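Posting this for the archive.
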Amino acid sequence: MSPSDSVPYHIHALLLAAGESKRFGSAKQLAQIQEQTIILRALSHFSSAKFKTLTVVLGARAEQIKELLPPDTNVLTAQHWQQGMGKSIAAGVENLPDKTTHLFIGLADQVEIYTKHCNLLVEESRKQRTRIVASRYNGRRGAPAIFPRTFFSQLIELDTDRGARDLLQNSDDVIEIDLPEAAIDIDTETELNAYLATLASSYK
C-alpha cells in the first residue's frame, strides 16, 4: 500500500453553472445541443462519473434552470454569484458534505467533457490523494480539476472571476493531465453554432 492509499477518499463534484452568460445574450445553460440543454447534458455526464456526491451550483436565472433539473438534483444557489466564478466555488466549498476529502470542479459549458474524462481525473487523484489533479490545455492548467481537503481553505477565499485558476497556476503540488477537450467551451452563440456544425459534420 502506498502512503497515498492510507488517505481517505470521498469525492464530491461541483458542476458550476451560475454565470449570467452576458456574451451569449441569453441563458447558455438552456441552449440546445443535440436536443438536450447544455446543463442537462453536463449533468448526465457528471451523474455517471465516479463521484460520491454532486452539487449543481446556480446563480443567474437559478429558478428557471432549476425547474428543468431532475427533482433529486442537489442544487445550490450561490448568493454572490455576480462577483464571479470564485464566489460560486467558495459557496460550494462552504456547503460540502462533512465526509468530503476531495473536490472535483467542472464547468457546465465545457461541452466536450464527458464521463470518461471525469473518471480519468478521479483515477489519477486516487493514486495521488494529497495532490491537486488538473487538466492541461492551451498551454495552461484549468478545470476540470480535483482538490484535496488541504486546499479547501484557499478555495473558500476565492472572490474573482478567475475561479481557481491562480491557485492551479501557482501551486507546485499539481499533477497535470493533458485534456485538450477541456479547451472547448461555449461563451457566445457563434461558438455554439460552430460547435453544432462540427458535430453535424462528424455524423456525415
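Helices lie at 38-47, 62-66, 85-94, 115-127, 152-155, 165-170, 189-202. The beta strands are 11-17, 32-33, 36-37, 53-58, 75-77, 102-107, 132-137, 140-148, 174-178.
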